[in-house]
Specification:
single chain; alpha/beta; Carbamate kinase; 8-stranded mixed β-sheet; 4-stranded mixed β-sheet; 16 strands; 26% strand; globular; binds adenosine-5'-diphosphate
Length: 270
């Protein structure tokens, strides 16, 4: 079983990703796809007059500030346009894809953060009306049911709180939780960079291999912004028993097959 997370940044080649997924499925591989949609969400939010806002936590993680209006725009793009676009591309290739958000069937459940701490201009501030949280439980019965019946699940945030509220969650960490829950051997996290770059944005500084115990250090020294969350997701996946996490490039040809060949940053226990 392979869990593949495709980012939502500019430049990602969904056509190539879906071509690879179709090939893997034809070869008998079980695949679960998780996707983002951040770039398109930013564009739509701007067009709708509700520009995106991002906040940084005291530990340095960046996330989207999610009020109700933002959440609804987020759902339009992630669960609507991006999810259905991927499902359509897979269906065109004969893959029986089913698109679901974390709300559907309580697929991704967790605790909503009642308050978050953010740092602005060096000062810490509390925000209460933020609809975000973290996936703590994955509905494996639903996923395994789909997989056993030959469907390919295509999953996207938001998730659902225990109280039944939609909440934004990080897609990389949700993919990691899904990989752990399903006992996947591999988690691919594909984005618009070749992998983890020692000197971002210098693409020739790609780190080709990392051991799990080096993650903490490189996260502090090399990764900025959203890349730090990918490394956190990688760490959670490995701790949960996933054998290999590969941070790969979703821009060129054969993005999934290349990553499976180890092109990118391969992160494993050793
Ligand atoms: P996606 O939405 O595709 O999942 P993100 O935008 O969340 O991708 O994260 C990938 C981004 O992380 C890259 O586009 C890059 O701007 C940023 N980044 C920060 N530090 C690094 C680094 N050391 N190596 C690679 N990318 C980095």
């Amino acid at each position: 079983m392979i869990v593949i997370k495709i980012g939502g940044s500019e430049g990602i080649d969904y056509e190539a990703v879906c071509g690879d997924v179709a090939q893997l499925v034809r070869e008998g591989q079980r695949v679960v796809l998780v996707h983002g949609g951040s770039h398109l969400t930013n564009q739509v939010a701007l067009a709708l007059g509700h520009p995106p806002q991002f906040v940084t936590s005291p530990s340095g993680y960046t996330s989207r500030l999610t009020d109700r209006a933002t959440l609804e725009i987020f759902e339009m793009v992630y669960c609507g346009q991006v999810n259905k676009n991927i499902v359509e591309r897979l269906q065109r290739r004969g893959v029986n894809a089913v698109g679901l958000s974390g709300l559907d069937g309580r697929l991704w459940q967790g605790t909503r953060k009642s308050v978050i701490k953010v740092v602005e201009n060096g000062r810490t501030r509390l925000i209460r009306d933020n609809l975000t949280g973290r996936v703590e439980q994955v509905n494996t019965a639903l996923l395994n049911g789909l997989l056993h019946s030959g469907f390919v699940p295509v999953l996207t945030p938001p998730a659902i709180s225990y109280d039944g509220e939609a909440m934004n969650v990080d897609g990389d960490r949700a993919a990691a939780a899904t990989a752990v829950a399903l006992g996947a051997a591999e988690l691919l996290i594909l984005s618009n960079v070749p992998g983890l770059l020692r000197h971002f944005p210098d693409e020739s500084s790609l780190i080709r291999h990392l051991a799990a115990d080096e993650l903490e250090h490189v996260s502090q020294t090399c990764a900025q912004g959203r890349m730090r969350i990918k490394l956190l997701g990688a760490q959670e996946a490995l701790q949960g028993g996933v054998r290999r996490v590969i941070l790969g490039d979703a821009r060129g040809e054969r993005p999934v097959l290349r990553a499976l060949d180890g092109v990118g940053t391969v992160i494993s226990e050793q």
